[in-house]
Design a protein that fits this description.
single chain; 449 residues; alpha+beta; Thrombin, subunit H; Pdz3 Domain; globular
């Protein structure tokens, strides 16, 4: 019979603590002759393809008209001051085509830049030129002329799954190249009001200021996304970052390289999310999709026999989860493209063929409608159903008031606004704006003072 010492619990605890102690200290490089896994070999291949981007922009200084009068300046002794100031910014980019020198980044990194400088990991500084940019998706392509470039291989972002490990590489705060790791927290994030077309990968890998335009890669070192934004009250990382899927970014890049711009076409439908209540009303088993609420007369949708009440299930074989998916898929299609739209029509699943057409709607800068709408781009909604906020600056009054791209203005100052002309008449001479907004299947009122 084995006798335990009287102080056996204390001895056992001491033994367990001694076994656990290494877990509280730095991990060893080798355990039982086996080296621990490391991301270093993969990063050695990837980091040469992630570059620092710095820009310089000449900004025109605003001044009172009287200060432009040389007599006034001389009489009051106002010295001549420079009318321009230089602004600089930092960001990141990813070399995706070493042979041709193409670098993918965010539009907001190079927007309105007069000079773009790319710094490689080997220290070389190269002047870059803008190939093309798309404000609505926040994608831009720049080009450098140099030898010995390294590109980052591109993965298929459609194969990403929630829980996949990912690594973010960029240049936050201008400190030099930085690597953070995490997982894919969610896919298909939209409706955030960050960009006009949103289909974000959400990740908890730290994405900080300066990481914009950098690479989000999988553990094989393949590019799955372009880091673009963080969600935090004070601009720091709180574990919620967003990246543009690389499939979307590369599609836009190919268009920018070929045409220098993205010319978005029209299908001619207004849609809303398929809710649980609507699915029950339509006697559908699925709860994902988009319900067509209106079809513009003479549009490709009408010619394809799409009707209000049809439920969109997929476009070109890509599943449609909500109304944002319809907008994103159609927004990435080019004028003249053929699309196959699978819908539930009167209880039966059918496929309609449509051809994307050139938009025929009026559009206007918000500043031309009312000062409080400065920084927005507006266009008539299909079917004379309001005015869509197509684009929006983050510094605009509208954005700060809570409006997002895709919102539809259906009324202003207690008057109907079925189109831009009616909106202009409704707000003419008004000091403040009381806007009736339709967002998906929700309506609300916002005041711009």
């Amino acid at each position: 019979m084995i006798k335990r010492p009287r102080n056996f619990p204390a001895i056992l605890l001491a033994g367990l603590l001694s076994l656990a102690a290494p877990a509280w200290s730095a991990l060893p490089l080798v355990v039982d002759g086996q080296s621990l896994p490391s991301l270093a070999p993969m990063l050695k291949r990837v980091t040469p393809g992630v570059v620092n981007i710095s820009t310089k922009t000449q900004i025109q200084q605003a001044e009172h008209p009287l200060l432009r009068d040389p007599v006034f300046r001389h009489f009051f002794g106002v010295p001549n001051m420079p009318r321009q100031r230089e602004s600089s910014s930092l960001g990141s980019g990813v070399i995706v085509d070493a042979r041709r020198g193409y670098v993918l980044t965010n539009n907001h990194v190079v927007d309105k830049a007069d000079e773009i400088t790319v710094t490689l990991t080997d220290g070389r500084k190269l002047q870059a030129k803008l190939v093309g940019a798309d404000r609505e998706s926040d994608v831009a392509v720049i080009k450098v002329n140099a030898e010995r470039l390294t590109d980052v291989p591109v993965a298929n972002s459609d194969r990403l799954q929630v829980g996949d490990f990912v690594v973010a590489v960029g240049n936050p705060f201008g400190l030099g190249q930085t690597v953070t790791s995490g997982i894919v927290s969610a896919l298909g994030r939209s409706g955030l009001g960050i960009e006009g077309y949103e289909d974000f990968i959400q990740t908890d890998a730290s994405i900080n200021p300066g990481n914009s335009g950098g690479a989000l890669v999988d553990l094989n070192g393949q590019l799955v996304g372009i880091n673009t934004a963080i969600l935090a009250p004070n601009g720091g990382n709180v574990g919620i970052g967003f990246a543009i899927p690389v499939n979307m970014a590369m599609s836009i890049m190919n268009t920018l390289v070929e045409h220098g711009e993205v010319k978005r076409g029209l299908l001619g439908v207004t849609v809303q999310d398929l809710t649980h209540e609507l699915a029950q009303a339509f006697r559908l088993t699925q709860t994902q999709g988009a319900v067509i609420t209106a079809v513009q007369p003479g549009s490709p949708a009408e010619k394809a026999d799409l009707e209000p009440g049809d439920v969109v299930l997929s476009i070109n074989g890509k599943p449609v989860r909500n109304s944002a998916d319809v907008r994103n898929i159609i927004g990435l299609a080019q004028i003249g493209d053929e699309v196959q739209v699978e819908v539930v029509h009167k209880g039966a699943s059918v496929v309609r063929d449509a051809k994307i057409a050139k938009p025929q709607f009026a559009n206007a800068e918000g500043q031309a409608i009312h000062p409080r709408l400065a920084g927005t781009l507006l266009r008539d909604a299909p079917g004379n159903e309001g005015v869509v906020i197509e684009q929006m600056s983050r510094a605009s009054h509208a954005y700060q008031a809570g409006l997002v791209p895709g919102d539809v203005i259906i009324g202003a100052n207690r008057r109907q606004a079925a189109n831009i002309a009616e909106l202009r008449r409704a707000v003419k001479g008004a000091g403040q704006l009381i806007l009736n907004i339709q967002r998906d299947d929700q309506g609300f009122i916002i005041v711009l003072q």
